[in-house]
Amino acid sequence: MTNAGSKAASSRVLLRSVSDETLAAVVRECMEFCDWESLVAPGSTVVVKPNVCSAVPDKWEMSNTDPRIAYAVCELLLTRASKVYVVESDGLRVTAWETFEVSGYRGLEALGAKLVNLSEAEQMEVEVPPAGRVKLPRLMLTADVFITLPVLKTHALTYFTGSIKNQWGCVPQYDRILMHQYLNPMLAELHAIFKPQISIMDSIIAMEGRGPTNGKPRQMNLLLASRDSVALDATAMRLAGLDPQLCSHLMLTAEKGLGRWEQEAIEVDGDWARHATHFEPAILDKAIAAMDFMSRYRWFVKYMLEKDLVFYPFRALVQILRKTGLVEGG
Predict the structure, then answer these.
(1) 71, 25 Cβ separation under 8 angstroms
(2) What are the residues whose beta carbons fall under 8 Å from the beta carbon of 32, sequence distance 6 or more?
(3) Which residues, at least 6 apart from 40, have a Cβ–Cβ distance to it below 8 Å?
(4) How would DSSP label each residue in 34-71?
(5) Contact in structure between 137 and 121 (CB atoms under 8 Å)
(6) Contact 295/177 with Cβ under 8 angstroms?
(7) DSSP helix/strand/coil, 199
(8) pLDDT digits (tens, 9 = 90+) for 31-49
(9) What is the pLDDT of residues 150-197, one digit of tens each?
(10) Separation of first and last alpha carbons in the chain
């Protein structure tokens, strides 16, 4: 499965266990593998985007990027960069501040990094086909370097969520679910706009099954890193026994010439045989498909998905239907 040493390889991915040495040491190796100092000039501005999407106490560890990774990355960056921003946007029923708080990100400010809620930051309109003009954070468009810190997870709507999907959280509208009808092509366009230079994927506790927030935790104790987000996502999928060609946004991003997904074009530095496994894929059942279709309507999002008193009882009913077999994927 690994192509280490292949002269034809055009993209490189690092695969390292955090069980063999300290997490900080593995993060440093990831950053050095990506030659971070050649990207981060002294005095530069760097944006770091972890995946911090859940504020549920018993789910955040498998849903969100381990804060220790962000801490180690920021400590290195602050030896050269003048400004380091760690960013996330609000979701439908949760704010970025709540997810930062639950996940232990607040302490980053003591290091000298700044936490930013992109939903509250200055925005500018950018053409993002096929959705049209979309407001995006000015900070994301003006920073010198962008580093993404995703989590390895399956996803009911996009098959997989990793480096490319993590940029969805850079769209500051809390109700960006209204644009889900354009999700896959938008992700490819956002990748072209934001241009992440380094991707470090948290696979310490990954997620399989009903991701990206309601799946099952899978302890892998791994970090993956690359300058090529497409290659990183494709490699992570293969590591988890998933097929990259089933991930539409990955293939669309590759078609734009923004990275390589082909196995023979990727050099993997790491012990593949030791860590390769097989994940339970996410199931796009009728309930999720129906919700995704209806999410293009503002009234449905406002009065059904945003309202806890409506959403949670409806979700409980769907869970019962799944257990009884009336909705597939129970």
Answers:
(1) no
(2) none
(3) 46, 77, 80, 81, 144, 145
(4) TTHHHHS-TT-EEEEEE------TTTHHHHS--HHHHH
(5) yes
(6) yes
(7) strand
(8) 999 999 999 999 999 999 9
(9) 999 999 999 999 999 999 999 999 999 999 999 999 999 999 999 999
(10) 33
